[in-house]
Specification:
Elements: E1 7-12, H1 15-25, E2 30-33, E3 39-45, E4 48-54, E5 60-64, H2 77-80, E6 85-89, H3 91-101, E7 106-110, H4 115-131, E8 139-141, H5 149-157, E9 160-161, H6 165-195, H7 209-225, E10 230-239, E11 246-252, H8 260-269, E12 275-288, H9 296-307, H10 311-323, H11 343-351, H12 399-414, E13 420-431, E14 434-445, E15 470-482, H13 491-500, H14 508-518, E16 522-525, E17 528-531, H15 533-545, H16 547-550, H17 553-566, H18 572-591, H19 594-606, H20 612-616, E18 631-635, E19 643-648, E20 655-659, E21 668-673, E22 679-681
Parallel strand pairs: 1-4, 1-7, 7-8
Antiparallel strand pairs: 2-3, 3-4, 5-6, 8-9, 10-11, 10-15, 11-14, 12-13, 12-15, 13-14, 16-17, 18-19, 19-20, 20-21, 21-22
Helix pairs in contact: 3-4, 4-6, 6-17, 6-18, 6-19, 9-10, 9-12, 9-13, 10-12
């Protein structure tokens, strides 16, 4: 490799992404192993030497400082003391970044193009500038909307400035979630253990999970409380001019009726009626423009609903399509394309695909979408769109991926097509002074629904009348039906509702649903979700003792303030202090209700027998992953998913217990001798 030009360290988010970058930029690449499973790739580009380091997602996590462990301080101290929480860096990546940064002239951050990617880049940036402070003014951001060769070359030729504000917004969200997770979980779990002394008993609290769970529980409670009612419609069948075929069925204006006696009274009155008089006939043409551009919520809802898959599976499908270069970056809240977006380049490629050729007969311009949305979110990239490349079923592309890409491509093409044209009308008529009416709609031109066939409207029988016209009536009848309860939440409807309430982020919402299901707070029945007894009891208790955390109000305020930090409307420090003050007030509300919490827990436990915790609240050992023979039966009190495994400090040789979910969870506990003379983690000392 030539030593001329600048030495540039490029931080990527994952190995597959870095591999694609290198294949596009380099004619020759040198690969070197620098860690246990970490390889750097080096090559020359425009006279500079670029060294790519792929991370594996986040390389830091938030943990408690020494002296703030379980039982070492009141839970609220974790929030009150600004020094209680510390950011722990992955030792291996810290060492690698320090070494590479000390020899580099510039730092380019090429993690995923969204706020979460900014936060991951921020973690690497902080390590790099400690090793080489000159990089503070020599840091640039790579912002690529897709992984096509054209877009990668554009992004590397048009480096953008590096702003830490979007990264700080995510860091603030992680800190606040740690406050709620650590302090709230400890407070309620310690209370639960006073009621029932059972090892591994954890009652987990989450800022986003509880409001999401409440939505599902409330809907189930609505369904349980729902009482079906018998109702009746009165209908009249109108004949065509030939008096042979039913032209339309019209409904009595006071339908539905609740009393059968009233229905029978009307039927008796109209028993021998064979004529009806048209009192009015209204008709109008409706133009319905194409839908707005697609964001993450739209894409997840569309794929979940049509493929009958979970939200997390839909997001995974989108990620694969992006990594293979078939769609743009799929994590975006934005619904507005830039004015200079190169739509024509993409449409020309899609036009060559046989199934889509006929759609282009309804496209007048390939320059701009006909219904552009408005800018949403803080990221500066465009809505989800196809790149123009046509996927083929193979090793990584399954029929589900191909169908999902088809939905995205058809949505994108549909935004350039003509309006949907419909004729809508209402006919009103009188039969012996009893009022009847019927609405109808007919499609004159399907427009954009030719492409987006899942949005094609239903047709109703077409008819045309004039005011004062007399028409034949064949039959006057009644039909009875029972009212139905509100439907359970499915993935598509739930994701959209969470977005509207500002609960979670575009990326975290599928993960929230997954965690609730994993912790057995909800279960999936077909394509919808039902709360379990565990979930119902959790919400019943928290509704009583901590209502302000269960409702979306607090989490919505957090998301709004995070956006203000990202857009530089307020400082990170002032935002964090504001939320700290608000949560301390919330936590004191919880502390004031601890006696009530004990009473509610006793009632729940006593009603469920000896195995109460497994039925009533989440016992983390139920979801424990299976490991090798050195697994312990102690569940992690922080993440509640992993279990504590005995480990050895490579430097001192001392034994300790660490979470099996490391590096996602870095909780540790000293190894001590328990009452049974066996060794165990200090956190479980009784």
């Amino acid at each position: 490799m030539s030593k001329q030009g600048k030495q540039v360290l490029v931080i990527g988010e994952k190995a597959s992404q870095v591999r694609t970058f290198c294949e596009t930029l380099f004619t020759a690449v040198m690969t070197k192993k620098v860690g246990k499973r970490v390889y750097i790739r080096t090559g020359e580009w425009k006279g500079d030497t670029l060294t790519f380091l792929p991370l594996s997602g986040h390389i830091t996590n938030i943990d408690t400082k020494k002296g703030f462990g379980w039982g070492e301080c009141p839970p609220i101290a974790l929030v009150q003391d600004p020094k209680a929480l510390v950011v722990k860096e992955n030792y291996e990546f810290r060492k690698i970044i320090r070494e590479l940064a000390s020899k580099t002239d510039e730092l380019w951050l090429a993690t995923d193009p969204d706020s979460e990617g900014d936060n991951i880049a921020f973690e690497a940036y902080n390590i790099a500038i400690r090793s080489n402070p000159k990089l503070k003014s020599k840091t640039r951001r790579i912002w690529n909307s897709s992984l096509t060769s054209v877009e990668i070359l554009r992004a590397f030729n048009q480096l953008t400035s590096w702003s830490v504000n979007p990264a700080l917004a995510v860091q603030g969200r992680r800190t606040i979630d740690a406050w709620v997770g650590f302090a709230g979980t400890r407070e309620v779990t310690m209370t639960a253990r006073k009621v029932r002394k059972e090892r591994g008993l954890v009652l987990s609290v989450g800022r986003v999970q509880l409001p999401t769970l409440k939505l599902i529980v409330d809907r189930d409670n609505e369904r349980t409380a729902f009482l079906a009612q018998q109702k009746y419609n009165v209908l009249a069948d109108l004949l065509d001019d030939g008096r042979k075929n039913v032209l339309a069925s019209v409904q009595h204006d006071r339908s539905p009726f609740t009393k059968e006696t009233k229905v029978q009274e009307i039927l008796d009155k109209l028993q021998k009626s064979t004529l009806a008089k048209i009192t009015s006939f209204q008709r109008r043409q409706i133009r319905i423009p194409p839908p707005r551009p697609m964001n993450t919520t739209d894409a997840i809802a569309l794929i979940s609903q049509n493929l009958k898959v979970k939200a997390e599976e839909a997001l995974s499908i989108l990620a694969i399509l992006y990594q293979q270069g078939y769609i743009s970056y799929p994590r975006t809240e934005n619904r507005k394309f830039k004015d200079n977006f190169p739509h024509k380049d993409i449409l020309v490629k899609l036009q060559k695909h046989d199934p889509y050729k006929t759609f282009f007969q309804q496209i007048e311009s390939m320059i701009q979408v006909r219904t552009n949305g408005r800018k949403q979110g803080t990221e500066d990239h465009d809505p989800i769109h196809p790149t123009g490349a046509i996927p083929q079923i193979g090793t990584k592309i399954t029929p589900s991926h191909l169908k999902s890409w088809t939905f995205i491509a058809r949505w994108y093409i549909g935004m350039f097509m003509h309006d949907l044209l419909q004729q809508r009308g209402t006919v009103t008529l009188s039969i012996k002074e009893e009022p009847f009416s019927q609405k109808y709609q007919n499609t004159e031109s399907f427009g954009w629904t030719e492409a987006m066939i899942w949005r094609r409207p239903r047709e109703t029988p077409s008819f045309s009348f004039e005011k004062g016209q007399i028409v034949q009536v064949r039959n006057i009848r009644s039909e009875k039906f029972k009212t139905k309860p509100p439907a359970r939440w499915g993935d598509a409807a739930l994701i959209k509702r969470l977005e509207k309430l500002k609960i979670g982020t575009k990326s975290s919402r599928p993960e929230i649903i997954k965690k609730l299901e994993m912790r057995k707070y909800i279960k999936r029945q077909g394509t919808s979700y039902e709360s379990t007894l565990t979930g119902k009891n959790l919400i019943k208790i928290f509704d009583s003792i901590w209502p302000d955390l269960v409702t979306p109000k607090f989490t919505r305020q957090v998301e709004i303030r995070m956006d203000e930090v990202a857009t530089e409307k307020c400082s990170y420090e002032s935002m964090l202090e504001t939320i700290r003050f608000e949560y301390i007030s919330l936590h004191k509300q919880l502390v004031s209700q601890l006696q009530e919490l004990q009473v509610l827990l006793k009632e729940a436990f006593s009603g469920l027998g000896t195995s109460s915790s497994t039925k009533f609240i989440h016992k983390s050992s139920q979801n424990r992953r299976k490991f090798k023979s050195n697994d312990s039966s102690y569940s992690c009190p922080v993440c509640t998913v992993g279990n504590l495994r005995e480990r050895t400090n490579s430097r001192t040789g001392e034994k300790f217990y660490g979470c099996s979910q490391y590096p996602t969870c870095s909780f540790t506990s000293p190894r001590i001798k328990m009452k049974n003379q066996r060794f165990g983690p200090a956190v479980y000392k009784k």
